[in-house]
Amino acid sequence: MSELAKDICLQGLTESLTNLFEFYTGESVKVEFVSGEDQEVIAEECKFESDIVSSTIELVGQDVRYFVCMVTTMGVAKGLCRGGASDPVDWIGELANQLFGRFKNHLVEYGVDCELGIPIAGEGVQKTCLACGDGASTLVVNTKAGCVEAIFKAEIDPDLRWTRNAVSVASEEGSIELF
Predict the structure, then answer these.
(1) Residue 48: its pLDDT value, please?
(2) Distance CA 46, CA 94 (A)
(3) By three-state DSSP, how is residue 156 classified?
(4) What would the pLDDT profile of 50-98 be if each residue is shown by its tens digit?
(5) What band does 173 get if pLDDT is binned at 50, 70 and 90?
(6) pLDDT given for residue 35 in this prediction
(7) CA dist 174 to 25, 170, 171, Å?
(8) Do residues 77 and 127 lie in contact, with contact meaning Cβ atoms separated by under 8 Å?
């Protein structure tokens, strides 16, 4: 049975965020879709923070292109490191890379072959992702360490449909595979 590709992507991105942060926090996390006025409020509030870290990464495949900008405060990033990295800026880049690795594996189940870009990480003063531009949406991950925002933009035909392919094999979690 075929499903809308945009729904498959949103589900896959949400599951990938949940699995990634549950893996690194060792606890249950809540992922919320934020849109409309709520997203505008978040964007306005974020302009006043000065300790922001973010990472932008791109995924490109046949008929699909995704950008995501993961954003949080320096303090939350340090809290999520838990010995995994000594630099929160590097860590947010690694989290973005692992997020899209998981997302890519989700799409493989539908026969969608994708490539990942290299994550670009930095620290700054505003949580607006210029790479995503207009039409971006936000998923907010709530952890005990604090919130992480995944601001994303999908470029995908709204009528495109995919069917799950049971024989497609995704990479094992933790395996080293060049994307």
Answers:
(1) 46
(2) 22
(3) strand
(4) 688 899 999 999 899 999 999 988 888 888 876 666 788 999 999 999 9
(5) low
(6) 72
(7) 16, 12, 8
(8) no
> DSSP per residue over 97-134, as a string?
HHHHHHHHHHHHTTT--EEE---EEEEES----TTT-T
How far is residue 38's CA from residue 139's CA, in Å, rounded to a whole number? 11
Q: Is the pLDDT of residue 177 over 80?
A: no
Residue type, 51: D
Q: Which residue type, as a one-letter code, is found at position 80?
A: L
Superfamily of domain 2-158: CheC-like (3.40.1550.10)
pLDDT score for 127: 47
